[in-house]
Write a structure and sequence with these properties.
The structure holds two protein chains of two kinds. Chain A is an all-alpha fold. Helix content of chain A is about 85%, strand content about 0%. Chain A is globular, with a radius of gyration of 16 Å. The two termini of chain A are about 25 Å apart. Chain B is an alpha+beta fold. The N terminus of chain B is likely disordered. The chains are: A mainly alpha, B alpha+beta.
């Protein structure tokens, strides 16, 4: 419940404050958002599995975001930023799909 | 994610929960977490606040018109190349269209010239055919014959002489325009010209070279001397401005067709 309220609060705050993103971080924001979504769905699945641990969630969330941004940053430095960010998005997307499939089986038993 | 593998399948999980019946089902756990949130949810909630802010910001950034703002250098170079190619194509288009425009302008100028020519031709032909009023230098011939007894032959001869001398437009008594199709017929009390009976004095307005027209009537054995045989008198007045206002309706030929291409 608190998690859902937190998400809603975040959306509202983002809509109201319209925070500015530094130009340097702009390419990493979408990747970071997708990585965080992956962490959230993973956590939801773990919760439904009964093995949820908030410490693990915090660590996975932050490391997910950080590593995704790092990969894209490295890709930019190596000149393959567009390709690497596409790769990261694809991998995270697959993981999100797998997690959502598991969640779906938990909730709907199908 | 550190707490589980993405390829872990849900059927394994259900198998596990099948082995341990007292463990609450996923649905029960979800309901309980919704109703009685624990302390662990607070950190998760905080992180989700951050996620919400970031997601909304990203959506807003992606929705803005500044489509080049978030692009990488290579993307920008590609976009620049694309724009340059488009610009080259557009230049080519501009050249083609200018060529088309020039050719159209040429053809429209030619059309205007042809139109101008056609108009002047129309004027000339209209004067010849009697469909347009005309004015210019010429002579006014007043023929007075007693009892309008003019010989048709003399009148026709006179008109032929005038045509020979370059008469360009002619009318009689301000009533009948004399053109190629004009007919003359003897009638009671005068002459029937194109269906109208005219009587003395006959006033013939002629546009042409005044000197030449006068000479064409006055030569020995000409119109003036002929009319003297009919006891008529001819008065020739040269004028720099003769007005011919009678017009004939234009008639399209019914049988004759132009055998020339144009």
């Amino acid at each position: 419940m608190i998690a859902i309220i937190g998400l809603i609060v975040g959306v509202v705050v983002g809509l109201v404050l319209k925070p500015d993103v530094p130009i340097g971080l702009e390419p990493y924001l979408p990747i970071a958002v997708v990585a965080a979504l992956d962490a959230v769905f993973g956590a939801l699945r773990a919760f439904l599995d009964g093995i949820f641990d908030d410490k693990v969630f915090v660590v996975s969330f932050i490391s997910n975001v950080f590593i995704a941004a790092l990969i894209v940053f490295l890709g930019d430095k190596l000149g393959v930023g567009a390709q690497l960010s596409t790769g990261v998005i694809v991998v995270l997307g697959i993981r999100i799909f797998a997690n959502v499939a598991a969640i779906r089986r938990h909730i709907f038993h199908a | 994610m550190t707490e589980q593998q993405p390829d872990q399948q849900a059927d394994q999980v259900t198998a596990t929960s099948g082995e341990v019946p007292p463990e609450p089902t996923a649905r029960q756990r979800a309901v309980r977490a919704l109703l009685h949130p624990g302390r662990g949810q607070i950190t998760a909630g905080a992180l989700l606040v951050v996620l919400g802010i970031a997601a909304v910001t990203q959506v807003r950034l992606a929705g803005t018109d500044d489509e080049y703002g978030g692009m990488r250098q290579s993307d920008l170079i590609q976009a620049l190349n694309g724009l340059q190619a488009a610009s080259r194509r557009n230049d080519q288009d501009i050249r083609d269209l200018e060529k088309t425009r020039d050719s159209l302008r040429d053809s429209s100028e030619r059309t205007a010239t042809a139109l101008e020519q056609a108009r002047s031709e129309l004027g000339a032909l209209g004067i010849l055919a009697g469909t347009l009023p005309a004015s210019g230098p010429g002579v006014r011939i007043t023929v007075t014959v007693p009892d309008s007894g003019i010989s048709l032959n003399y009148l026709l001869d006179g008109i032929e002489e005038l045509r020979d001398a370059g008469a360009e437009a002619m009318e009689i008594n301000d009533a009948v325009r004399v053109v190629a199709q004009t007919s003359f017929e003897a009638a009671d009390g005068g002459v029937n010209v194109d269906g109208r009976v005219l009587s003395s004095p006959f006033v013939i307005d002629v546009i042409g070279d005044p000197e030449g027209l006068t000479a064409a009537l006055k030569f020995p054995g000409g119109f003036v001397e002929d009319l003297a045989l009919d006891e008529g008198t001819v008065d020739i007045k040269q004028d720099q401005k003769i007005e011919i206002s009678v017009i004939r309706p234009a008639t399209a030929p019914r049988y004759a067709e132009s055998s020339q291409g144009e």
